[in-house]
Design brief:
Elements: H1 2-5, E1 11-12, H2 17-41, H3 44-50, H4 70-86, E2 89-90, H5 91-108, H6 131-139, H7 151-156, H8 163-166
Parallel strand pairs: 1-2
Helix pairs in contact: 2-4, 2-5
Length: 181
């Protein structure tokens, strides 16, 4: 709020295509920033202090979305502020992004896969994160760091190789000796 009042953050009144472009910019840029933050949070020197709270639960459920260390929550908020400092965003685009953020978080932690297997064969949709994708991350913390897309995991080689075969089994496995790093 202070940065907006001081004129550092610009919020426009754009609607229509410009607002949808804002949503795309926010999703893609924050997906990259959150991927990097999430991956760094799994480094052994930082994991215990930043991200271990979220991995107490190996079976994601709705409420586990909110099991975050305050450092992690502040980090995510600072990333949004950073993007808004360099990109003037519309109020509508920001509102849609925030709604999508909550929806993706809830779907990632729902504990079941609501999408059909055919999802993986659709050209663009197959790169959108699913409940299975995030559940696999909770089972093996060396893979699947993305939030909204699989894009950065594909680019940086951290996508779980068994994602296609595990699809639909979100939250079904119990891990023995679970180690998210």
């Amino acid at each position: 709020m202070l940065l907006w009042r001081a004129g550092f953050i610009q919020v426009t009144h754009a609607t229509g295509w410009p607002a949808l472009l804002d949503v795309a910019v926010l999703v893609l840029s924050l997906d990259l920033l959150m991927y990097v933050f999430h991956r760094v949070a799994h480094h052994p020197l930082l994991y215990r202090w930043v991200h271990a709270t979220h991995h107490i639960y190996d079976k994601p459920r709705l409420l586990t979305l909110f099991a975050l260390n305050p450092i992690e929550a502040l980090g995510f908020g600072c990333m949004l502020i950073l993007v808004c400092l360099v990109y003037p965003v519309s109020a509508l685009g920001l509102s849609i992004y925030l709604l999508l953020n909550v929806l993706f978080g809830l779907v990632g932690h729902i504990g079941v896969e609501p999408l059909p297997q055919q999802w993986l064969r659709l050209p663009v949709l197959r790169f959108i994160s699913t409940s299975t994708f995030h559940a696999e991350h909770h089972h093996d913390g060396r893979h699947n760091f993305g939030f909204y897309t699989l894009l950065w995991d594909k680019v940086f080689g951290t996508a779980a190789p068994e994602y296609s075969t595990d699809f639909g089994e979100a939250g079904q496995r119990t891990i023995q000796g679970h180690s998210p790093r």
